[in-house]
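Weekly puzzle thread! Below is a chain. First person to post its structure in token form gets bragging rights.
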Amino acid sequence: MEFQVKKEANATVVMITGRMDAVTAPQYESSVNELITGGDTIIVVDFDGLDYISSAGLRGLLVTAKLLKAKGGQLRFANVKGTVREVFDISGFGSIFQMDDSVAESLAKLA
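Winning reply:
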């Protein structure tokens, strides 16, 4: 899994590529926790390059949501598609999280 961060005008965009599973989810959790601890409380996670997500990856996303909620932050997901979207829908995460078709759409809804 690759993890990249870029700052936008009103949010931090986290781009994840590859696989998010039991091996890589702790890296995601640690990296996002550092961002939140550092004051980034408006986050868009871009799943455009994510090929696979496991239950460990879903747990990492829940941890992110809980950390942000405790800080009064916001979280949106962009580009959730293909098999990753199927996992979200089957697990019920599709109804829990705010999902948009693009990063630009997520950013606009946060503004």
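Puzzle host: Confirmed. Bonus trivia for everyone else. The mean pLDDT is 95.
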